[in-house]
Amino acid sequence: MTITNVDLSSCDREQVHLVGAIQPHGVLLVLAEPELRIVQASTNSADFLDVPCERLVGQCLDGLLGEENTAAIRTQLVKKELANATHLISVPFLSSQNGVVHISGNRINGLLLLEFELSAGTVEMIPAHAYSSRLQDMIQQLYGSAGLLSFLSVVVEQVRILTGFERVMIYRFDRDGSGMVIAEAKETNLEAYLGLHYPASDIPEPARRLFALSPLRHLPDVDYVPVPLFPDQSPLSDGSPVDLSHSFLRSVSVMYTSYLRNMGVKATLVMPLLKSDKLWGLISCMHHSEPKYLAYEQRFPVELLSRMISLRIGDLENLDHYAYRTQLIQAYCQLIGEMGRAKNYHDVLFGSKINLLNGINADGAALLENGKVTLLGITPTAYQVGLLAEWLAQQKDAVLVTHCLSYNFQAAGEFSAVASGLLAIRISRVNLTWVMWFRPEVLSETHWAGDPKKPVIIDDEDQESRLQPRTSFALWKETVRGYSEPWLDCEIEHVRKMRQSLHDILIEQTCQLIRLNTELELSNQALNNFVYAASHDLKEPLRGIHNYAELLRLEEGEHLSGQGHQRIETILCLTERMHHFLEALLEYSHLDYIEQDFQIYSITLLVEEIVDMLKKTNPNESITVDIQPAMPDILCNSTFVKVIFQNLIMNAIKYNAEAVKTIKIGCYTTNGMPVFFVQDNGIGISSEFHEYIFQPFKRLHGHKEYGGGSGVGLALTQKAITQHGGRIWIESGEGKGSTFCFTLTPEHVEEGGE
Amino acid sequence: MRPLMIVEDSDEDFEVICWALQKTGFAHPVIRSERAEEALSRLFPGMSQLDRIDPLPCLMLLDLNLPGMNGLQMLEELQQMKQKLSTPIVILSTSDNPLDIAACYRFGAAGYIVKPFKLEQYIEKIRDLTRYWFNTITLPEEKCDE
Question: Which ipTM value was assigned to this complex?
């Protein structure tokens, strides 16, 4: 290995489980089933079993243990699966050493691995009554603790008493594999590790995997001399070494032993803490003054204890946040209850009393719906939330949790002060609906055990470079930026529940909307049919009245007084006006019967056509029309567009007292959307009337002024524009001329604000 | 002289048409049916006890909006009959609905007049109508019918 290609993460690839050697505190035999023939043996067999390994290999097990013991083992082999190392039997007086031998076994790659460990008679056995009283005491203390940390501090103290190790600590893994010492019990003269962080490379992935596999790992002496297996050629047909993953005696990585040596550790005992079958942390026991071997009998209770603790971790973590969890559940129930009552869930999420921030420890929240951003509390700006949403849209998960957003999404560095923490839930993929909660950056100091950026050093004393773990574990302080307080499991659970409920509500609302829409369409149609029929039927009698009045005038005119004549004239005038009303009403309701035929039309051509027609029908007026030459081609309904321009231009001519009536027609672009306008030099409309002018039959002038319209022109115009999803507005003042502006496409409004 | 038949339920409208015809100096006799059913049975007496119109009308003015069978249905009825009438039918209606107009022509109407609101315009249209059907056009002789 040269200096240039040294890979600092090579530790992650070291195949710790395939090292073909064991530690010297026991003997390993590899056997072929079913005859239980020994195919490989550790070279230290003579020390424990009085038989050199060369003589063991090729022999069957009964030759070593005798028929009775072998039969007992065979019984166990049938009963047990042996995926993990399992204690099989304990055999007394097997060798000249005069102790009990504990035999455990596991099966791997079709081979049986038996491990022999001596329990020397010198091991001090605690009397049963003393032991049970100590156990009782311990259980009492454990149950007396209120939260996880106090529980774990009892654990480390008890484990230290049980094992006699000088230092016992609990090490908790973070999501990224780095870790921190969260509980420690130690001899007073030792330096404290409590609160220190360790980079992920200190316990690399293969080591974490091995720790999770076995309930206990023991290294009695870091300076042990590894014991090879005999013969060194593997019994496996492919020549690969026997996998010792599950073997208690497995030799450890040189990186690990050098690491421990650098820390001044002579012996270790490590037990995994699992939460829901996942590695949560470790109970790590260290001995600093001398090697320390813990025999099977002494290890057994500690192993049980660690298993028991694993079972309690989840509960205790929950207990830690009990009050907070209750608060979250209450907030959730309130929100959901309120949403059940409200018409619009949006209003509930952003209510003044009940809202998205209720109960949860977050400073800000946001809802993104159809491109619209609504903000609550302390948040990034609407624009920044929009950017965030674009990034979220690329994520495949429906729930996104991070407490260091800018490390995942660089652009978020801009607003990491308010949003280093982000909890985001996707409500709908179709219209990109996300709800987000924000947490501010918390500037904190992390205390590392040594420089985390240099977890290893490269030692090139020899020609070859070798990776070495770091030698300095001196306190290394780092100011951490871009991090918020991490999100708790209960918070994530809270927003997951919110997501489900909002999702359900959305589906429910969509169904309701579809139903309402259908009903509305039907009732709209019924109303229109009614209007059409009614105005049609009203026309007939009206014609009768009008015609009779006319007949009266023509036939009996000479018999009438001047006043009688006047009255007849009034009847004719009124019936005529009513006729115009009915015509307008018919035209207004008739717009709904026009086919919804949308095509691309040249607005310029449509406008020119209408202007020609209007000039012909108003030959006596002096009209100048200025049409902007290149108006865009638009997807529209030509009938509607003609209605729009015809009415607007007609109004521009009609409500105009100038000698030369000047009309300007054109288009400009706002937010990428064309806005059309019809501008005149007419009488203008005072701003107080602007909100009424689009109502049907609303007139601002008398029936005899300005040609007396029906009051339906602008209502028709608006209706035709609405059919396109556009809107119309007016810019005008009295005597200043009017400009009517309108769009023919639906708008996407970006709403901001607090 | 063969009569002009007017199918019109409204007395006022009938009166106004007659008045307008009179103004234009129309000389043919005018007969009226108030309902489409009545008009049909008088044109085809085999269907009822009513007297057959004799001679048959030379032109028919038909209102669309009638009680019972409406004008359009009457056109449809006539079209489906084996025995075909040679009398042209001109529709006289307040409706300017393009769908109504198209349907009438499809069922054999010879013309369609939208009744104007103003009386003078009405007279003008009736004048045009009589000039066309009685001066310009040659209507079939009665003996050629059946």
Answer: 0.77
